[in-house]
Every structure is written in structure tokens, then in C-alpha cells.
Amino acid sequence: MGKLSRRDFNATVAKGTGAAALMSISPLACAMGMHKDKKKLGVALVGLGSYSTYQLAPALLEAEHCYLAGIVTGTKDKEQIWANKYGISQENIYNYENFDNIAKNRAIDVVYVVLPNSMHADFSIRAARAGKHVICEKPMAMSIEECDAIIEACKENDVKLGMGYRLHSEPYTQEVKRLVREKTFGDINYISAEAGYRSMSNPDQWRLNKELSGGGALVNMGVYAIQSIIYGTGENPISVSAQEYSTRPDYFKDTDETITAQFEFKSGVVGNIMTSHNVRANRLFASCERGWYELDPASTYIPLAGRTSRGEMNFTQESQQKLQMDDFAKHILFDEPNKAPGEMGKRDMIIVKAIYESIAGGGKKVALNFEPSFGFGG
Ligand code: NAD
Predict the structure, then answer these.
(1) Given its phi and psi angles, is residue 185 left (phi above 0), alpha (psi -120 to 50 degrees) or beta?
(2) Using H for helix, E for strand and C for coil, what is the string for 317-362?
(3) How far is the CA of 64 from the centre of ligand 1 (A)?
């Protein structure tokens, strides 16, 4: 199906050539208000691996504003299993080849791309061209150019774009953002974040294959640490210097194992991250003029925990993925703020690139030139 730009669409409507007729054939139809009378948006998961199976699909059973309407899988055997388990009708089941036919399917409003990182851009762009709103998993893509292409495709096709950054909908993370916003403990002097796990079982997995992953610990877990130091300060960094450590080169043949990086912020905050596929770590800590706050764990699916220099935080725990997908559905349905827009994914990839550049330059300082609010969600 041919692509129609937003300008073309507006011109066609303005000419009075029949919006109704256009709506019946255009992939833009879905994005131009077809879902306005829907109470719940239909989500199609693309890629039925472990995150879709154990987190997203169960969360969609609980969600209030969206539900699992369709699947896109390259594994024939999964089709009937998922259809039976989630009551998915046959016309809402696609494979990677016939995926573009989803444009004609009015039951699907949102396409959620949960594939290996090298496939994010292709499927996000195809989803946008099919007139579907897009959620793209982290890391957003393999390059800044791919991030731009995803953002542009969503703009051109008037569809919304969200990142799979579940923590922005999560209460402990939101509390940290509130402490930052309200300067509860005064100016922040230091922030650190660690995100890692110990990978042992399968050296042949796609996450350790650069062609499919785009990088190692940094693009996988490091993105959480980068996110933490940004929402934990409310600022984009202005520079980074980084180091890479390799202690198990036989296992991590193709991708980075452990990376540390130091950040400067315009306000004077000093930041530090560690990310690893060899070290278990999951923490955010900020030291401020008049106290401190900490999340530990800071990014797991299991309940987060947090405390400040004044005492324990205590929030009700719900599925983070349910909260995230409901927030994105509310962004589409009720124009509520997009908590994790595409620009946030792009900003994090710019930082990832700068970290790799610093390492390649022997730890040299690499400048980061973001607008102050670039990449911040609502
Ligand atoms: P996974 O390996 O469990 O699943 C990957 C899926 O992609 C499988 O269904 C597999 O069949 C399919 N696939 C298609 N082409 C493939 C190929 N060439 N090689 C390997 N698999 C291929 O991975 P996952 O843990 O579900 O991760 C998928 C995406 O979700 C990744 O981008 C990951 O970073 C992201 N993720 C995000 C979170 C989060 O908390 N936001 C958590 C886990 C994973």
C-alpha cells in the first residue's frame, strides 16, 4: 500500500475529495480518529519471545484501556497456542512477511515492537506506514539515523510513538521525579546508577551478537542506568567519559561486558553509571544538599523499593507493563501526555553512541549538546 504523507492527507481532505472514502482505504484511517469511539485499544505484539510471553501479554489482560487483539510471529507453532490462550481471532494473526496487511485491520490500533534490536526500526516504520500507533522496545534502534527514521515515519503518518520505558509509569520512579521537581532535598550534588546482570547460560543468544543487538550491556541494561541519571536529576548531561572492562572475553566475544561512565551536568551534578552483563546491580542513588534518595532495585519487574534520608517509600505495586501500556493508550484516547516519547529513545541512543565514542578514544570526554528538555516525556 502506498505511503501517504500528512501533507498529502491534509491536502486531500482540504480539496473535499471525500474524507469518508479516503478513510475506508487509507492506512491513515486508523490514526485519524477511527479509535475515538473505542473504549479499549487493540494492541498487536510483534515478536512473541520472553518479554511478550511473560510480561506484556499477561499485563494486557489486566489493562483498562487496551487489550491483546493481535499477534505477529515468525513461529507458526505459536499462532494457535496464543490464539487459544488469549482468544485472538485468526484474522488478527500475522507473520513477518504479511505484516503490512495489518493496515486494513481495524481491530488493531497499536503495534508493539518486541523484537531483537536490529528489527525495531523496520517494524516500527512499517507499523507507522500501516497507520498504527507504535510502541518500540528499548534500545530504540541501531543508530541515530534509524531513530530519526522511526520518528519521521510516525510524524508523516500521524501516529503516536512511545518507547517501552515502563518505569515512567511506575510509582517509585514517579516519586523520584517528584523529589527532583520539587527539590525536596535541595540541589543534587551526585547521582549514580547501576544496571546489570550476570549472563552465563547461552553465549549464542542474540543479545551477545552485535549484528542483532547493536551492542552489549550498554544498549541492554545501560539504557536503564542512563535513564536513571536523567530522571534522577531532571537534566540532560552535557558530557560523558567512559571505560570498558572485559573479564570474560571467551563468553563476551562480540559485545561489551562491563562499562562505567561519568557524566557532567550543567547544574554541577556529577553522575556515574555502571552497566554490565557480568555484574548483578540494580540501583539509583542521589546525594543532595539536604539529604538523599535511593531506589534498590530501581529497574526490575518485581516490586521496586526505595527510601530517602527521611525514611522508606511505600507504594502500591501493580504490573509496570500494564501501567505503561494504559498510559500510552490514554495518550492516544484522551490526549494525555506521552510519558516516553520517541525523542527520549533517540536521546538515549545519542548518549550510548557518545559512550562508545569515548571508549574508542581511550576515555576522552565527549560533549553532549541537548536542548534542556529534549527527550523528556510528559
Ligand atoms: P527474546 O529473545 O525472548 O525474544 C525475541 C523474539 O524475536 C522471539 O520471539 C524470536 O523468535 C523473535 N525473533 C525474530 N527474529 C529473530 C532473530 N533473528 N533472532 C532472534 N530472535 C528473533 O527477547 P526479549 O527478551 O523478548 O526481547 C525483545 C525486545 O524487548 C528487545 O528489544 C529487548 O531489549 C526488549 N525488552 C525490553 C524489556 C523492558 O523491560 N522494557 C524487557 C525485556 C526485553
Answers:
(1) alpha
(2) CCCHHHHHHHHHHHHHHHCCCCCCEHHHHHHHHHHHHHHHHHHHCC
(3) 25
CA of residue 241 to ligand 1 center, whole Å? 30
Are 102 and 35 spatial neighbours (Cβ–Cβ below 8 Å)?
no
- Please state, in angstroms and rounded to a whole number, the distance separating the CA atoms of residues 209 and 216: 8
Q: Does the beta carbon of 27 lie inside 6 Å of ligand 1?
A: no
pLDDT of residue 152: 98
Alpha helices in the chain (DSSP H): 6-14, 19-25, 28-29, 50-51, 57-62, 76-86, 120-129, 144-156, 171-181, 210-213, 217, 223-231, 320-334, 342-360
Query: In the Cβ-directed half-sphere of 221, how many Cα atoms lie within 13 Å?
Result: 30
Q: Which residues pair with 262 in a beta bridge?
A: 241, 272
Residue 7 confidence (pLDDT) = 35
pLDDT 10s digits, 49-61: 999 999 999 999 9
C-alpha 42: how far from its chain's center? Answer: 19
Residue 15's pLDDT band (boundaries 50, 70, 90)? very low
Cα angle 79, 108, 157; round to 5: 130
Query: Count of residues for the chain?
Result: 378
Candidates 115, 205, 327: which one to mutate for ligand 1, based on the most atoms within 8 Å of Cβ? 115
Could you give the CA distance from residue 252 to residue 220 in angstroms, rounded to a whole number?
14
How far, in Å, CA of 140 to CA of 120, rounded?
7
Nearest residue by C-alpha to atom 1 in ligand 1: 49
Instruction: Output the pLDDT for position 215.
Output: 98
Per-residue pLDDT tens digits for 46-92: 999 999 999 999 999 999 999 999 999 999 999 999 999 999 999 99
Instruction: List, in sequence order, every residue forming a beta bridge with 68; answer none if it has no partner.
Output: 43
Claim: this prediction has a pTM higher than 0.85: yes
